[in-house]
Amino acid sequence: MIFGKEEKTAITALIIVLAIIIAAHIFLSSAGKESFAKKYDNSSETNDLVTYEGIIKEISKTKTGGHLLIKTDDIIIFISGGADKSVNFSPGREIKATGTVQFYKNQKEIIVNSISDIETFPIK
Q: What are residue 112's DSSP bridge partners?
């Protein structure tokens, strides 16, 4: 099959657009959610992407047992799917979590969808 000038131009344009999309995907993936999140405060609204830093006060599982709730002084952090063994969730440790603000039973929570969006540290 022999392509005419218009077809060659269209194919070249499609290849360039595809290369731009792939490059943007790689760049945005490497930047991570945290780059686009704002710091959590009491004015954070539903569906805001936020990063929260605080001290773990209490850890509990949901009634169904599949998810974790981490209580801090300011907010509850909901971790969908439970905890990964590689993260040390224990009271008294500092936590840094990136997630979406939601309300559950009239209480604000930060919903974390990936264990990679959570870090814990010993208190400095």
A: 79
